[in-house]
Amino acid sequence: MPLSRKHLEQFxxxxxxxxxxxxxxxxxxxxDISSFQDFFKKLNLSQIRLDKEFSDxxxxxxxxxxxxxxxxxxxxxxQSALKSYFKFLxxxxxxxxxxxxxxxxxxxxxxxxxxxxxDQIAEILDLPTGNSLQExxxxxxxxxxxxxxxxxxxxxxxxASNLDLNAGMLRVIGKGNKERVVPIGxxxxxxxxxxxxxxxxxxxxxxxxxxFLNRRGRRLSPRSVARIVRKYSSASGLMxxxxxxxxxxxxxxxxxxxxxxxxxxxxxxxxxxxxxxQIYTHVSLERLKKVYKKSHPRA
Length: 299
Prior knowledge:
Blueprint: H1 5-17, H2 23-43, H3 47-52, H4 54-67, H5 72-91, H6 118-125, H7 133-148, H8 152-156, E1 163-164, E2 169-173, E3 179-183, H9 186-202, H10 222-236, H11 244-257, H12 262-269, H13 274-277, H14 279-295
Antiparallel strand pairs: 1-2, 2-3
Helix pairs in contact: 1-2, 2-5, 7-9, 7-11, 11-14
């Protein structure tokens, strides 16, 4: 039954164990699908009626969301979660038909991300200047974000067995358990080596597979990693909203600014579709226009 809590829990576990979805995505999917379930439980519709009149009933759900002033971007995310859920139920033969195929996606305009300049990134990266284990770790975390374009969940889940320090490469386990190999830049590699050397010299007991550790020798959680980035970005005072994903935006945009091929950037980011990567070409062009208008005497 699509409104069953048990089936939702099975779906979330499937995304976690089989698809390697990040904790943030799992929380969002759980919340979005629960909203759908709660709405239709209140209407007390049978599965047969819900199936027969799905398109009309789903329009009621959309009207309900809009009455709560939920924007198209959030609705589109919710639709994506529900389409995946219904496909899962159909493949498990819980649903006779895939309800997701009857969902018409809401269109919305994606705003261009605000991208930090090279100087802004450098200022944030240079803030941890001390020799403590914590500061060595923090610098290595941020250098690796900017050097590789990794997602938050990918970096916090990074294991020692995925590192090849001699070759300066790492293996990233991305969305859907898809693997990619990315190079580590010279400065990031040096920061990582310094952190690992200090970690091995100061800690007696720790998780040997985890790369980035907390004070108890355990793997840093995604929330803790995000807190590190927020700490130094706030101290820099350069950008109001700066997150681990801001390093990813900067990584992609700065590569394109430097003339990198779009398809190569796509592979480095681990995007499934080139269209997802193309947003950074727009950002790069906008930056070029601003430089042109500012610098050219007859712009």
